[in-house]
Amino acid sequence: FRKALRDKRIDFITASATGISRDGNRVTGVSLDNGETLEAGIVVNAAGPNAGKVAAFAGLELPVEPRKRNVFVFEAREKYADMPLLVDPSGIYVRPEGSVYLTGGAEPEEGDVAPDPKDFDVNWPLFEEVIWPTLATRIPAFEAIKPTRAWVGHYDYNTLDQNGVIGPHPEVENFLFANGFSGHGLQQAPAVGKSIAELVMHGGYRTIDCTAFGYSRVAEGRAFRELNVI
Ligand SMILES: Cc1cc2nc3c(=O)[nH]c(=O)nc-3n(C[C@H](O)[C@H](O)[C@H](O)COP(=O)(O)OP(=O)(O)OC[C@H]3O[C@@H](n4cnc5c(N)ncnc54)[C@H](O)[C@@H]3O)c2cc1C
């Protein structure tokens, strides 16, 4: 993708946005931590877990914050290569990944707040005390498993309804959101990218109408939930 974009003379700049300027109801530029300021006809907020902060640069409220999430890898004697992704009603999920299994989804609601941005420490007791017993109850063969690796990431968590916020701000129309995917943004990325590109190029959706994910529901406090996502 990078090479194809370079061939089309798209510039890549490695820097952090630190501010967004506005002239009334239009955003006009982005200041960077390297001292540069970019003029902008359109600004797209694609800042993942940092999206709420970036929206605030433009004086806009967006309920998207980081949330710490642990993913654990384990080996099991029993191989269920054709096992689908399973989600327990508690939110704990498990799926095969090659010869091993991936699991997570046990973070308690209580105390689930924005973490220190540098906190990527794995919470092993979550695996031992919560996930493993739940898996073993559902799938007795998972009594005998061996955890091998684990990592932590930060969800781009929409505190209103854990769903994407896509498209222009209703008043500041040249500020576009592509935010808040809350743990399911990877699978939606191709559609979101295309939709945002259509907004930039044509000023409206051409293939996938993402209006239902628009910012208006955030302004109205109207949740748009998707069930059975992790
Ligand atoms: C543990 C974990 C498991 C997940 N599992 C899945 C899954 O199974 N399926 C799925 O669909 N999704 C999953 N997700 C969610 C998915 O990873 C995200 O929804 C997706 O990556 C969001 O993509 P994005 O491009 O919007 O943001 P990101 O991928 O977070 O990218 C945001 C970018 O913005 C940059 N940025 C932030 N602030 C600034 C700034 N001020 N200036 C310049 N740049 C900035 C960041 O450096 C980063 O490069 C998971 C997430 C986690 C944490």
From the structure above, extract its key features.
230 residues; alpha+beta; FAD/NAD(P)-binding domain; D-Amino Acid Oxidase, Chain A, domain 2; 2 domains; five-stranded antiparallel sheet; three-stranded antiparallel sheet; 5 helices; 11 strands; binds flavin-adenine dinucleotide
Explain this structure.
The chain has 230 residues and is α+β, with helices and mostly antiparallel strands. It folds into two domains: 2-62 and 160-220, FAD/NAD(P)-binding domain (3-Layer(bba) Sandwich), CATH 3.50.50.60; 65-154, D-Amino Acid Oxidase, Chain A, domain 2, CATH 3.30.9.10. It is 22% helix and 30% strand. It contains five helices and eleven strands; from the N terminus they run αββββαββββαβββαα. The protein has helices at 2-7, 51-57, 124-138, 185-202, 216-220, and strands spanning 17-23, 26-32, 37-39, 43-45, 64-76, 86-87, 93-97, 100-104, 145-158, 165-168, 175-179. The chain has a five-stranded antiparallel sheet with strand order 6-7-8-5-9. A hairpin with a 5-residue loop joins β6 and β7 (93-97). The longest helix has 18 residues, at 185-202. It is elongated, with a radius of gyration of 20 Å. The mean pLDDT is 96. The structure holds flavin-adenine dinucleotide (FAD).
